[in-house]
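User: I'll paste a sequence; please echo it back and then give the predicted structure.

Assistant: Echoing your sequence first, then the prediction.
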Amino acid sequence: MQSNKKSYANKSVYVVDGSRTPFLKTSGKPGSFSASDLAVLAGRALIARLPFPSNAFDEVIIGCVMPSPDEVNIARIIALRLGFDEHVPAFTVQRNCASGMQALDTAARDIASGNAHLVLAGGTESMSRAPILLNAAMVNWLAGWLRAKGVVAKSKSLFALRPAFFAPVIGLLKGLSDPIVGMSMGQTAEKIAHRFAISRQMMDSFAMRSHHRLAAAEKNGYFHDEMETIYTTDGNYHDHDNGVRADSTLEKLGKLKPVFDRNFGKVTAGNSAQITDGAALLVLASAEAVEKYNLPVMGRLVDSQWAGLDPTQMGLGPVHAMSPIMQRRNLKLDSVDYWEINEAFAGQVLACIEAWKDKDYCQSELGFNQAVGEIDQDKLNVDGGGVSIGHPVGASGARIVLHLLQTLKRNNKYRGIASLCIGGGQGGAILVERDKKETKAKTKTTTSKAEGKSPITTDTNAADTKMENKNVTD
């Protein structure tokens, strides 16, 4: 496990602002917005309130998994639709569920290396507009039909047409399946739930709590500073995440049937992330840009990690990505004030929690001497997550980083980690921190014997002092 290389070691990378759309649950038909529509709607107000012109940006980086055929290199389309100068380059990144986080990481590395000073980065997805494709038999028939010359040849080709050729290929279902191991993402969730003895009731309880937390956050206005109201062409509007079910109960969730293993499974539509449309964008800046334009600072992107693991257990990716960050930064669990772990499935997040508690897993899979410990769930996804908010795959990685920074600000805290599992057997994580002088967070220095100490060590005054002394000009 790589643990000694810091991602942004050269220069500080600041998040100065960000916004997102409401996340809109799909209804079985194409939604009102394309992926570029969503990103533009998230970005207009964001760009308008910045104290510098759009041509000051060095680049635009957007994560997206399923852009429509007329949104090729969707980042460039978004940049131009937002009114960016044509000389500002833009490119699209794709890392499945973590595409939005990949965009942030790529932008941060460009800033840390000195190649950029201002970057618009984030992610977008219109899952309701995932393509419906022709199957191979129909494609081959069409090729023959187009090659046929004359009435006789056309007639022969026509007689070769079969009803089965019209069976569509659902792009979304293909995208949610792993072609290497032949399992859907839901089946991988079933596997790790079985491995860590996650019960159906545990999953449903987690799902219910996710909805209740989101409902409470909406009631308290916790998304006001990050969410833009968006309007449809017929005059309707969306000003909140519409997948929330504030009346969720264990009884209601318990009536839902398993989806991925109908006979013995535990994963249902109710304890899985919702199929959703949405976008989230952040503005990243160097210290020089912050000083030049007198920009506000939400926090810093401090470190990141990408990890690979068995694709059949992809849901455990967060523990593989977060562990190296914790280790190389000398952090213990209670050194992290808040956590955002994307809720692809309730059972998947619960399995991550159990994995860090499990000595055998930590030894065999993470290379530690003993168990890491248990995340305090009162600090985890405190305003809901993918189960209630939804999971537009290209956007979620950006959303959880943005909301984590908002959560730290709201609660006057210092440090957080955002992480996702990634289809195909990967995990991604980003460590964020706010200016310590603006928080009341306090860390402790504790010592432990070299033998038998926790694999993730304690926070140190020296590390905190170093971070605190970093100022806006580096």
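Residues 230 and 238 are 5 Å apart (CA to CA). The two ends are 30 Å apart (CA to CA).
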